[in-house]
């Protein structure tokens, strides 16, 4: 018989190849394929085996194991869908220094005080460094245990000794499994460590929070399969020059996947901001040109946001277009519609557009506010006080309806705004607010200016 050919496997991503090649065709790493022996033949038949539990009617399935336990941090519970679910595995990713470790240390402290032992394993800092941070934010508790390990077997031993209700691993890229080959933090190691911890969490009913690194593009480092393995994926982001931090859920098996939690970071740690609308709107005694307020929807939460624009004569050459906190492609489109459909001359002017407070606005509902801000800056005339604008701007200049209009208007009325420019057929507004329905951008700008 012909002998089986040896197989080659990539130490970075685990890709198998029947022959050696210099560059892995999967992860594009050079010199990472090593010989691992003959490939095993696939099974020709699969026989029945034991089951973990017999199948039961759906009405008889217990719900106690899927009920969320609040952590006591309202904004964090809001993003999770009510709290921590026993046995759930949560991946929290964010840029270095944004405050992930501080927030999760506060979460561990709250859980330790309310539900029992909690274990924080740090692969990046010593236990003394974590203790200093805990003292600074007031997160010391007898049921909060600390360990500094980078070996997976040692982490499992700590879990067996402490028997925690919550495990926080900071971070999953720093832990290595001795049973798997590959570089530290590589795709093979990250997948093996995450799989072992997920199996441990499910078998013990232990909530597990994994801290993940991000790449320079903002994506979670490691294999894409990591996001499929975990139950919840949270993104923790914020500008370094701002104290505002946001936690967004991009995947959640236990709640909505589009919620957002707002926090403010300071000397005492990360503090939740239950009413963040005031952070994204400037407080002035009188209106100024180039500013318009809109209401964005982050999950089920309406947030007031201010859009600012500046139109200045160009110094020669190609006019500049600078954007901060907004989608550049969306701003370019609205800028072209304002010039073509509303008759505002912008071809020889520099246009700058930005959001207030570091919030990122990407939804089309802010198109009308952006268009009015640009027109206001070009005419050097402010919009009326107490006015908000809601609507999507089409290429032909029409104003389209947006979702959640009722909740947006109610939030604006709660903040003291008395008038709203809205698309036609937007219904009735809350008490004390006057709605001005418009169908065309050009007519709206002519009416205001």
Average pLDDT level: 88
Structural class label: alpha/beta
Report the portion of residues in β strands: 25-35%
CATH architecture of the largest domain: 3-Layer(aba) Sandwich
Count of individual beta strands: 21
CATH superfamily of the largest domain, called what? P-loop containing nucleotide triphosphate hydrolases
How far is the first residue's CA from the last residue's CA? 89 Å
Instruction: Please tally the helical runs, counting DSSP H or I stretches of 4 or more residues.
Output: 10
- Fraction of helical residues: 25-40%
CATH topology of the largest domain: Rossmann fold
**Main beta-sheet annotation:** 9 strands, mixed
- Number of structural units classed as domains: 3
Unreliable segments of 5+ consecutive residues: none
- The whole-angstrom Rg is 27 Å
Question: What best-fitting shape do the alpha-carbon axes yield?
Answer: globular
CATH class membership of the largest domain: Alpha Beta
Strand order across the largest sheet: 6-5-7-8-4-9-10-11-12
Account of the protein in words:
The protein is α/β, with parallel strands linked by helices and 449 residues long. The chain has 3 domains: 7-37, no CATH class; 70-274, Rossmann fold (3-Layer(aba) Sandwich), CATH 3.40.50; 279-448, Ribosomal Protein S5, domain 2 (2-Layer Sandwich), CATH 3.30.230.10. It is 25% helix and 25% strand. The strands form 5 sheets. It has a 9-stranded mixed sheet, sandwiched between helices. A hairpin with a 2-residue loop joins strand 11 (260-266) and strand 12 (269-272).
């Amino acid at each position: 018989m012909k002998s089986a050919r040896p197989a080659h496997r990539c130490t970075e991503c685990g890709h198998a190849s029947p022959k050696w090649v210099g560059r892995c065709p999967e992860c594009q790493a050079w010199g990472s394929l090593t010989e691992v022996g003959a490939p095993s033949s696939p099974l020709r038949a699969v026989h029945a085996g034991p089951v973990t539990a017999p199948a039961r009617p759906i009405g008889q399935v217990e719900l106690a194991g899927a009920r969320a336990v609040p952590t006591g941090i309202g904004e964090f519970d809001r993003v999770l869908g009510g709290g921590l679910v026993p046995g759930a595995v949560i991946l929290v990713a964010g840029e270095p220094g944004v405050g992930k470790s501080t927030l999760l240390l506060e979460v561990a402290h709250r859980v330790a005080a309310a539900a029992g032992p909690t274990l924080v394993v740090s692969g990046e800092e010593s236990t003394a460094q974590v203790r200093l941070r805990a003292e600074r934010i007031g997160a010391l508790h007898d049921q909060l245990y600390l360990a500094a390990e980078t070996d997976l077997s040692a982490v499992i031993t700590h879990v067996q000794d402490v028997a925690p209700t919550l495990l926080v691993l900071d971070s999953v890229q720093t832990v290595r499994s001795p049973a798997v080959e590959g570089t530290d933090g590589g795709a093979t190691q990250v997948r093996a460590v995450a799989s072992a911890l997920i199996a441990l969490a499910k078998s013990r009913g232990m909530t597990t929070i994994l801290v993940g690194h991000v790449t320079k593009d903002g994506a979670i480092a490691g294999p894409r399969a990591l996001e499929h393995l975990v139950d919840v994926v949270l993104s923790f982001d914020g500008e370094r020059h701002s104290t505002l931090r946001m936690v967004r859920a991009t995947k959640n098996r236990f709640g909505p996947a589009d919620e957002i939690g707002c926090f403010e970071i300071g000397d005492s740690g990360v503090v939740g901001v239950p009413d963040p609308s005031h952070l994204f709107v400037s407080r002035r005694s009188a209106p100024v040109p180039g500013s318009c307020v809109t209401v964005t929807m982050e999950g089920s939460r309406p947030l007031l946001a201010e859009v600012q624009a500046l139109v200045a004569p160009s110094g020669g050459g190609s006019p500049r277009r600078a954007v901060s906190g907004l989608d550049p492609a969306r701003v370019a489109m609205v800028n072209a519609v304002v010039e073509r459909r509303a008759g505002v001359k912008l071809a020889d002017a520099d246009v700058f557009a930005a959001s207030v407070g570091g919030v990122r606005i990407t939804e089309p509902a802010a198109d009308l506010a952006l268009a009015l801000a640009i027109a206001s800056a070009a005419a050097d005339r402010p919009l009326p006080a107490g006015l908000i604008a809601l609507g999507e701007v089409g290429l032909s200049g029409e104003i389209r309806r947006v979702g959640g209009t009722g909740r947006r208007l109610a939030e604006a009325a709660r903040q003291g705004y008395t008038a709203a420019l809205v698309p036609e057929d937007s219904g009735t507004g809350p008490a004390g607010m006057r709605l001005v329905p418009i169908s065309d951008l050009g007519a709206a700008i002519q009416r205001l200016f």
